[in-house]
Amino acid sequence: MFRMETGVDKERRELLRRRLLDTNTQASPVLRALRGSPGERELPLHIWLLDATGALAGGLVGHTWTTWLHVTYLWVDERHRGAGLGSRLLAEGERVAREERGCTGSRLETWDFQAPEFYKKQGYEVVCVIPDYPPGITEYTLTKYLR
After folding, report:
1. Per the count of CB atoms within 10 A, which of 20, 30, 85, 94 is most buried?
2. In contact, 110 and 140? CB cutoff 8 Å
3. How does pLDDT run across 39-72, given as a tens digit for each residue?
4. Cα separation of 100 and 52, whole Å?
């Protein structure tokens, strides 16, 4: 017999995360080799673009893990769009990931009304499309190999 419960439980969440990590480590020689190495940890990567007054004009927030950059947020203030700042932020994030952290790939998610075409112009390829996530919006996952 089992009892099923719902509800937020941080202790059980952490226990579940650790047990899944252990299970995955046992099942995968690649993850087993990463365990305890510097590559196992996610390292934050933040790049800020400030205007002449010091106000935030744009930025990139992500992290590197193993040999991948994961771009979580890329944003440029509407007043500065069209000036190539998004391209510069992304290129700098990729450069840091490649040259300073040894990354060979980059990944990100974007919605259909955001920037899938922008990322394609930067060399990213669509690897996953999720329609209606949320309803009425399509989410894209894109990747790029950093050369």
Report:
1. 94
2. yes
3. 889 999 999 999 999 999 999 999 999 999 999 9
4. 28
Candidates 87, 96, 85; CA nearest to 63 is 96
Q: Supply φ then ψ for residue 39, to 5 degrees.
A: -65, -15
In which residue are the tokens 């955001």 written? Answer: 114
Residue 78 is given by DSSP the state G
Measuring CA to CA, how many Å separate 20 from each of 3, 10, 43, 70? 21, 15, 21, 21
SS3 of residue 60 by DSSP: strand
What torsion, rounded to 10 degrees, do the Cα atoms 31, 17, 100, 57 define?
Answer: 150
User: Tens of pLDDT along 114-131?
Assistant: 999 999 999 999 999 999
Q: Which residues pair with 60 in a beta bridge?
A: 47, 74
The answer to whether residues 125 and 143 touch, using CB atoms and an 8 Å cutoff, is yes
Half-sphere exposure (CA, 13 Å, Cβ side) for 73? Answer: 10
What CA–CA distances, in Å, run from 124 to 96, 110, 118? Answer: 17, 12, 9
